[in-house]
Structure formats: structure tokens, C-alpha cells
Amino acid sequence: MNAPDPMYTRHRERLLERLRAEGMAAVVFTNTPKTRNHDCEYRFRPDSDFWWLTGFKEPGGVLLLLPGREEGEQVFFCRPRVQSEEIWTGLRMGTERAPCLLNIDEAHPLQELWDMLPELLKGYESILYRTGADEDRDRRMIGVATQLRNGARGGVVAPSEWIDPVGLLHELRLLKSDEELVVMRKAAAVACEAHTAAMAAAEPGKSESQIDGLIVGRFLSAGGAEAYNNIVAGGGNACILHYNENDAPLADGDLLLIDAGCELACYASDITRTFPVNGTFSPEQRAIYELVLKAEKAAIAIAKPGVLYTDLHDTALSVLCEGLSELGLLPGSPEEIRESSSYVRFFMHKTGHWMGLDVHDCGVYFVEGESRPLEPGMVFTVEPGLYIAPDDETVEERWRGIGVRIEDDILITADGHENLTAAAPKEVEDVEAACRGAQLQTSRA
User: Fold this and answer.
1) Spatial contact of 400 and 250, defined as CB atoms under 8 Å apart
2) Residue 265 gets which letter from DSSP?
3) Which of 157, 279, 306, 343 could form a disulfide with 435 if both were Cys (CB 3.0 to 4.6 A apart)?
4) CA 432, chain centre distance (Å)
5) Which residue out of 349, 392, 400, 427 is catalytically annotated?
């Protein structure tokens, strides 16, 4: 029998400490299996909050954290072991083994949840519970609260408010522990290797789907999966920000933009690289690419504790506006381009997002209306881009259809930052060498 993973125990204790201070209980459900088509389901993936607290990968799990409960503060519900069902859908942990394997106080069959919940939640005025994820579940939770309120004349203290996880649980998840970072570095390393392999494999005549398949295969071979739907966008498709058809042929003279991250143990990586299908940038492609790279490197360079999150975007945007002016792609000075927001035609998104168990991870970006300062343990992407649509007649034809994005995963350390994805080639010479299949020693950026 495996020992419980201490990381998840520590996560629960961190949340319990906050719950005790607030005098509230928590009810955290995992995800529900989703139908793909007819009687087939998508591959199951646990809810991120639930996984952060338990590391339990099966469907049908519910965790209750009940501060001050004498019989035990950690109560778990899961599917019991039933041999006739396990034959069809796989082995289960079961209620007998869950307390030991998860290091929790007690476990009960899932079918007893709604009968036991009113008694377990008695005495708590506030419940940490995410509404809106499951309509039927929300109705049943309201029913539990109503049942308890009906006992108010008898002195029963009933829940009077549901608290969203954003203020408590999600703020804990935002700062990654050393154990979490070990997993995230592994996920990043796998993704870097997959991107490098894609550069070597792409060539005119192949298809986006072939490159997509190669990347997914690398993720699966490493014991992972896609952290999100890969974007493998050749030519003008790169100007569609969330393109994911991934089925077009790769043409000589086009760029290929790949936005793909590996997920390991539910932790994501997120990398974008752009490279020439034929292995050599044209002068126009190189000009746009080097501008985006300059913007990305400038934003990464300032990443350290105390810097405001919005400073990253502002730094990258300043570089892009200067370059768009110098290249003659937009009229006016860099300041005029920025003030008028004319750059939005070519750069229409922000420069990054938090990362962790979700590729767009939890955690607020602004506190009391102000951009929050960066802190050690935060992980986020830096991903400027420029996208010149194939049908944009406001620019010369030689620029049309060029879409470039470059994205890395950045960890804030005690005195600076660490680029978790620096091993994926991004300097022009390194990219072209990778397209030739050369062995690289990519410097950390």
C-alpha cells in the first residue's frame, strides 16, 4: 500500500488554517465525467481545486474540511469498491483504504453524501463552495442549507453564505511550493523537447496534423497529456489566436506557430514557438520575429519580486510599438501608436497569465484596483505576438499572413526569475538550426 503524498496533506493544512481563522467549512467536489458522444466519455480529469487538496484521480470524490470537528476535520466521500463495477471501469481506492492512502480522518461511500451532509455542516455559518459548476449539485446544496435553517428554532446554526474559493483557496494555489515546481519543471522539459522535435520534423508537404500528432505523442510517451488543445497553425492560420483545426498542409515559405504545453500530474506547461516551415526565415518574417523576441526578452528581463504584473505587458508593448513604427507598419511615433491603440490591429491580447494546475491558472491580477506585485512562487507566461492578417490591405503584400508569438513560462524566485522553458529554441540562429535537426545548447534566458 502506497504512503500518502505529504504535499497534498500540507495543502489541506494550509487551507484548514485559513478556514479556522474565518470560522468556515469547505466542501470541494471533483469533476463529473462528461459525455463525448453517445455513450463515450472524455478522458476524466479531476477538478483542479480538488486535486490540489487530495491528489485523488478518480471520479466521484468529495472532500469536506470541518475546522473544530472533534471526530476529525477531514472527511472524504468516494465510490466504494464493487468488484462487478471495477471489472468494467477500473480499480478504485475505496472507503476502507482512503483514510490511509490520503491521510484523512475518515471516508464514507459517495451515496451517503447527501444524507450525511446536513449533520456535518451543522454549526457553520459560511461554507467555502464553488457555485455554478453543476446546477443539480447547487440545488442539492441549497436544499441542505434550507434543511438546516428549518432547525433554527431548535438552536441549529445553519449556513447563511457560500464563499467562492477565489479569496482563500485560489490565493494559496497561486504561490507554488517546491514540490509543485518539481512537477512543473518536468512538464516544461517535456514540452521543450516536443517543440524542438517539431522544428526538426516540419517541412513543406507535411500537414499541421502530422506535427500535432508528433507533439501529442511526445507528451503521452512521457506520461503526460495536452495541457490544452494544441495550436499548430501554418501560414495565415497563425493569425487566428485560438486556431485548433490543425489540419492544413504546410507550405514552403510559411511560418508555423505552435502553442502547445504538456500536462504532468495535472500541472501545466505552456510554450509557443514560431519557425519557418522550410527552415529559413524570409527578411520580413525575420524582422517581425526579432521584434516579438525583443519584446518578450525585455518583459522577462524585468521579472522579479516587487515588479507589478502589468509592468510586464507595458514593457513588451513599448518595444512592439517602437518596432511597428520603425518598420513602417503603423504611422506615427511609438507614443502615438500606443496612445491611439492602433497597435491592437496587430497585437490584440495581453502578454501573459498565471500558470499551474490550470493553464490559465487561478489567482487575481489586481488587488483593490491596483496591479499586484510579483512574489516568489508565482508562475506565469510571457507571450507577446504580432499577427498581420493575410487579407490586411493596409500593409504591403510582403508582410501579409505573418503571425508570430513567442511564449515562455517564468517563475519568480527570491531575487529574480527562472525561465522554466528556456530549453525550447527561440534565437533566430537556434531556431533555424533546430529546423535542420541540429543539436542545440540553448542558453537560459
Assistant:
1) no
2) T
3) 279
4) 29
5) 349
- For 344-350, the CB contacts below 8 A with 24+ separation are 345/392, 345/394, 346/320, 346/386, 346/387, 346/388, 347/317, 347/320, 347/384, 347/385, 347/386, 347/387, 348/241, 348/387, 349/241, 349/385, 350/313
Please name the residue ranges forming H helices in 225-280: none
Our CA dihedral for 342, 348, 352, 353, rounded to 10 degrees, sits at: 130
Q: Are 23 and 126 a contacting pair, CB within 8 Å? A: yes
Q: Is the pTM of this model over 0.85?
A: yes
Annotation says 267 is catalytic: no
- What's the pLDDT band for 152 if we cut at 50, 70, 90? confident
Classify each residue of 213-225 as buried b or exposed e, where b means 16 or more C-beta atoms within 10 Å of its C-beta: ebbbebbeebebe
pLDDT tens for each residue of 35-55: 999 999 999 999 999 999 999
Is 11 one of the annotated active-site residues of the chain?
Answer: no
CA distances for 154 relative to 66, 104, 149, 151, 168, angstroms: 22, 32, 10, 5, 32
Catalytic residue list contains 387: yes
User: Strands 126-128 and 24-29: what pairing?
Assistant: parallel
Q: How far apart are CA 267 and CA 180, in angstroms?
A: 8
Q: Which residues are within 8 A (CB) of 195 and not within 5 positions of it... i.e. 6 or more apart?
A: 215, 258, 260, 271, 273, 424, 425
**C-beta separation of 442 from 424 below 8 A:** yes
39 is known as an active-site residue: yes
Is residue 243 annotated as a catalytic residue, yes or no? no
Rounded CA-CA distance 51/55 in Å is 5
What residues form DSSP beta bridges with 128?
A: 26, 163
* Three-state DSSP state, 220: helix
Which one of 383, 408, 430, 432 is the catalytic residue? 383
pLDDT on residue 2? 73
| Rounded alpha-carbon distances, angstroms, from residue 210 to 158, 231, 275, 297 | 57, 13, 16, 30
How far is 10 from 5, CA to CA, in rounded Å?
Answer: 9
Q: Which among 387, 408, 409, 430 is annotated as catalytic?
A: 387
- Only one residue has cell 446554526, namely 157
Catalytic residue flag (residue 254): no
